[in-house]
Amino acid sequence: MLEVQGIHAAYGQVQALYGVSFTARAGEILCLLGRNGAGKTTTLKSIMGLLPLSEGQVSLDGDQISSLPPHEVPRRGIGYIPQGRRLFPELSVAENIEMGLMTRGEGKATREWVLDLFPRLRERLGQAAGTLSGGEQQMLATARALCLRPKVLLLDEPTEGLQPSMIKLIRDVVLKMKAEGIAIVLVEQRVDTVMTIADRVVFIENGRDVDRMDAAELKADPGKLRTYLGV
Ligand code: ATP
């Protein structure tokens, strides 16, 4: 279980988070929703140790991870798929996957597991990552994060810029990860996607969590979407 407790973070002098708290449990999809610039990406970066916390803490299964150096955080089992995917474009699909496996010393069984999840990557093992389509790059970024055999997966707008067929595929993989017992924290702008897969929703506004509810409650009272997102 990932616990984020009252985190505050800044980019230099610019304060971006003023207290964000939530819990992501195994086998559950938690969506962070909020307007542009609300602090969703910053929240994920802060969990990964990429921004120093001035207050608050993050813990995984009871162990504090917020004081770890950034390269240690994935080793504890938190996979992060940043917005824009950040692959090694010159390296092949196989080499990008290899980089993922190395982080936690995973081997052939994990490699086969991720390639079975994404058969399309198996067909393109020798291709340079930078020449993959947008959807294939998202698959590779997800596959690389799964090479950690993560307990927690943080996904930042995974469907951005993708066609409907690809969005469906990514959504199916997220649901499969949930079924595997991974705790998933998803930042997603597509409200329709959120409504179909989220278990719980946390609204972020001006760097704070301002509301939270079960997805079922939100479906019953979609007025909250207007309040917090203007849709
Ligand atoms: P979006 O939906 O547009 O991606 P977001 O909710 O993910 O938005 P963040 O990217 O977390 O928002 O941004 C939160 C605030 O921090 C914004 O005011 C943004 O301008 C600021 N910010 C983000 N990155 C930096 C940076 N590198 N330097 C300074 N300020 C930043």
What would you note in describing this structure?
It is a single chain. It is built from ten helices and ten strands. It has 231 residues and is an alpha/beta fold. It has two domains: 2-77 and 150-229, P-loop containing nucleotide triphosphate hydrolases (Rossmann fold); 86-149, no CATH class. Helix 3 packs parallel to helix 6 (134-146). Residues 11, 14, 16, 34, 36-42 line the site of adenosine-5'-triphosphate (ATP).
Task: Detail the topology: elements first, then pairings.
Layout: E1 2-11, E2 14-24, E3 29-33, H1 40-47, E4 53-60, E5 63-64, H2 72-75, E6 78-81, H3 93-103, H4 108-117, H5 119-122, H6 134-146, E7 152-156, H7 164-179, E8 183-187, H8 191-197, E9 200-205, E10 208-214, H9 215-220, H10 223-229
Parallel strand pairs: 3-8, 3-9, 6-7, 7-8
Antiparallel strand pairs: 1-2, 1-4, 4-5, 9-10
Shape: globular
Strand order of the largest sheet: 6-7-8-3-9-10
Q: What is the succession of H and E elements?
A: EEEHEEHEHHHHEHEHEEHH
CATH H level, superfamily name of the largest domain: P-loop containing nucleotide triphosphate hydrolases
Main structural class: alpha/beta
CATH architecture identity of the largest domain? 3-Layer(aba) Sandwich
Percent in helix: 25-40%
Tally the helices: 10
The main β sheet shows up as: 6 strands, mixed
The CATH class of the largest domain: Alpha Beta
Hey, roughly how much beta strand do the residues contain? 25-35%
Do you know the CATH topology of the largest domain?
Rossmann fold
What is the straight-line distance between the termini? 31 Å
CA-atom Rg in angstroms: 17 Å
How many DSSP-defined strands? Answer: 10
